Amino acid sequence: MPPTPRRIADAHLDALAHLSPITATGLGLPYRQDELDDYSPAGTAAQADLLRATLAELAAVPTAVLTDPAEARCATLLRERLGSELTQIEHGEDLRAIRNLFSPMHEVRTVFAMMPRTTDAEWADVAARVAAVPTAYAGYTETLRVGLGDGILAGARQVRTAVVQLTEWLDGGYFASVVADGPATMRAELDAAAQAADAACRELREFLEVTYAPAAVTEPDTCGRDRYARAARQWTGSEVDLDEAYSWAWTELHRLDAELCAEADKVRPGATPAEAMAWLSTDGEAVDGEEAVRAWLQQVMDTAIAELDGTHFDLADQVKVVEAMIAPAGGAAAPYYTRPSLDFSRPGRTWLPAMGRTRFPLWDLTSTWYHEGVPGHHLQLAQWTLVAPQLSKYQTSIGSVGANVEGWALYAERLMDELGYLRTPGERIGYLDAQQMRAVRVIIDIGMHCALEIPAGAGFHEGETWTPELAREFFGLHCGRDAGFLDSELIRYLGMPGQAISYKLGERAWLQGREAAQAEQGAAFDLKSWHMAALSLGSLGLDDLVEALRTCA
Q1: Model confidence pLDDT, tens digit, residues 251-272
Q2: PANTHER family given for it (predicted)?
């Protein structure tokens, strides 16, 4: 058969899954399940070669093939995604990949949460993969050493955080917990593998603390405008007008602040938003215990599925399965979602980091689980998995654009507010606080990385240039989360420039697309039909998303 963009995309996915066993596990593909990725410079070079080869094959596709809108859409996504990824590699971003989540250090650890552990053969894969941790971390260390030599360095805050996380993993016996339930016949092999993995964690921690930390970037550990623009492209699939986005986010912040003040007065007459959130955290409704909050979050998603299916969405049976989980200790503070495998044998899952807590206030969890679970990440990414055979597996999995995905999840929170699901002032404060946090992210992420000036009328250090310290202070003034969460978030923004803006800019694109569809279709516009058509598009960058949403019906 002649090459088409969709066939090229899926061939690329298959080739990448063979190169990256962790990617294969995430997709549910049976490739090298007893191995880990090669994080050495040679491993990165192999991935770069694959990117170049796929882009060359795509460039050779006959123009006539692209008259098919589905093929054209796939070609646009593939060209943009692979080009953006290759640009990041060519600028050495892999050489400084130290951050508080989504680094090679974390990928090696979290892959075990996705592995089946029922049969002896599956446990043999677990044992071999745990035993492979030393090689994977040695390759990662080799890459960081190249970065050291080339002066391509991570920030000191990232290094300190990684050291703390490795210490938490070791103190908490993470790899021992991975193998704890293995069969007695493999006990010696599993325990030896876990001990070797722990030793590799200690070696990585020593390298970071003793060798890398003295050379790490201290001030400024922001990235600068050129590097930020490349990163923003990777997260949004668009050429972001950074100055326009920065200005727009201030407008959003002021709008949301006014709404928050009104809701705060309903919670405690005369209270500021900060005072209302403090009261909700100490005296508002809460759940005690990790298992109790996990069950509560599961019920939130189950209820949303039952009530939204047939009214605002048409959900296939596979999409209706989602599991609430407690995240392993030693990660970042933010909740997250992991998508189902391509065959749905592993369901989509939401993860709540307990962060040492035993009491969980509910005011800020309701809208968060509409974001992470239903109708947020789970509905979109599970629907993508469902329609992958009609599009391409690439478009519905590893070709994801962060701003598309996070934008839908933020749109989902807003939708549930529009539908009346945020029934109490506390729940609405949780939603508005989360919305405001996303607006703050745009301001401080662009502001500190691009060294912008704080505008007149901000009521905060007006005329000064943003720094991480000012960003943390500003964040604390405009977010109801605890200090540990805020500190973790700032480290995340510094280590992943451009990611923090994807939520609010993505939501803006989804809203613009819905408004355009309503304007074009008039009385014929049906929200349920639009939702399902929009969720079946697969991944698109923001440059293409609004136009595609306009024509959905």
Answers
A1: 999 999 999 999 999 999 999 9
A2: DUF885 DOMAIN-CONTAINING PROTEIN, GLR0591 PROTEIN
**Is residue 48 classed as helix, strand or coil in its secondary structure?**
helix
Contact 240, 505 (CB under 8 A): yes
Which pLDDT does position 220 carry in this prediction?
A: 84
Rg of the Cα atoms in the chain = 23
Tell me the C-alpha distance between 420 and 304, whole Å: 12
Q: What is the pLDDT of residues 293-306, one digit of tens each?
A: 999 999 999 999 99
Please report the pLDDT score of residue 553 as a whole number: 79
Written as six digits, the tokens of 114 are 């996705």
The rounded distance, in Å, linking the Cα atoms of 296 and 278 is: 22
- Tokens for 511? 């809203």
* CA count, 13 A, side-chain hemisphere, 96: 27
Count other Cβ atoms within 10 Å, centred on residue 128.
16
Q: For 443-479, give one letter per residue: b (16+ CB within 10 A) or e.
A: bbbbbbbbebebeeebeeeeeeebbbebbbebbeebb
Distance (Å, rounded) from C-alpha 473 to C-alpha 67? 52
Of 458, 430, 433, the closest CA to residue 444 belongs to 458
Q: How far apart are CA 230 and CA 151, in angstroms?
A: 19
Report the percentage of the chain scoring pLDDT > 70: 100
- Give the residue among 164, 195, 167, 165 at the shortest CA–CA distance from 179: 195
Q: Give the bridge partners for 361, in sequence order.
A: 286
Which residue type, as a one-letter code, is found at position 281?
Answer: S
* Burial zone of 150 (CB within 10 Å; 0-12 exposed, 13-18 middle, 19+ buried): exposed
